[in-house]
Amino acid sequence: MTGELLTPVFWLGILGLLFGGGLAYASKVFAVEVDPKAPLLKDALPGANCGGCGYPGCDAFAVALAAGEAPVNGCPVGGAETAEKVADILGASAEAGERMIARVICNGTFDNAKERSKYYGVMDCREANIASGGSKGCQYGCMGLGTCERVCPFDAIHVKETGVAVVDPEKCTACGKCIDACPKMVITLVPASKGVHIDCNSKDKGKDVKASCSVGCIGCQICVKNCPEKTISFANNLAKIEYEGCTECQICVQKCPTKAISGQLEKLKESKQAQ
Amino acid sequence: MVELFIILLSAILVNNFVLSRFLGICPFLGVSKQVETAVGMGAAVTFVMVLASAITYVIQYAVLEPFGLGYLQTIAFILVIASLVQFVEMVIQKSSPTLYQALGVYLPLITTNCAVLGVAILNIQEEYNFIETLFHGFGAAVGFTLAIVLFAGIRERLVVSDVPKPLEGFPIALLTASLMSMAFLGFQGLL
After folding, report:
1. What is the pTM of this model?
2. Cα–Cα distance for residue pair B77/A121, rounded to 1 Å
């Protein structure tokens, strides 16, 4: 009686042990190095395995994230919250490179830029751009209708009461959604660590810029000539900083006659006082 | 030699596992949207089926029969198949990441493919010897691959054809499968 009971238990146990041991051994021998970020990312995801991201399940999406193939905000279920967590995990490792953030290179606020007309259409930049190119005199600047604000999954870009969108450098993950959405292409990625930016996107000639905006780049090239690092280039009636060489000396910020270059002049004063 | 050929042919055409024995219907319907994935699935199943046939044969005649444990056949075989699939997955992941990527989620799914358990149990029922077992396992897998690839080919065309509204999608796929099954019945007189 006991024998009848124990024999199958014994043999099935032996078989189980054999296969289990074999698999345990095999998992050591055939161990594949997995990106350590992948399990972390997997925990940050909702775990619904819905496939909404286009990958077969959260696991596969986490692996793709770790490999940098999937977009940070690719999970439609988790939304901004999950995307933030994912960005945190990936951001820590991305610090080795330069952290980039989006920047609206336009300072054409209601005070600075002249209105050419009134716009009464759908409050969407793309619509407005098709209809009339926007209400502002400058055809290259921010229209301030907030399309970027609505596509941002991180709540990191907002149209201020001044009429121009501004990026929150803390929240921005450089996902590029606003850059794609902006019909004026006035948003670009800049290194988060740099503080000097040419805030103008106008490719108009100096005279036209002057007529439509008080803080536009008029193409005088004073910044180009004065830059000690020769890191400002000039093309299409617009000056452009090559961020790699920029030492944030603030000279261009001081020299620009239209104050189209934003920087930290207080830094300059500090260093002068120190000298 | 003729014997082995008959076993092979019978497993592939006459007693096709999917279309005559109705085993492994799940992957047959689930992984047959594209010919490419169907071929991948077929390859993985072939690999597992042949290995599972061999190992279950050894287990049956070295462990279960001598100790009068024939009634543990099902659970013991499932144990073998599950471990085997795990093992195969590890080996493929290590040796060929590309193949691992291509097979993807279908690889672990083979664990629950009843065609694999079916071939193992049929091997014992038909009282094949070891060589015959291998041939039967291989034939069954080739039959499975043949059926799923043919079906995927038809489904790829179905996507772009003008199907009556109520039959769109899965219903027409099931109809196709049944017609294929009937077509394969024609092989009954072959042997």
Report:
1. 0.53
2. 70
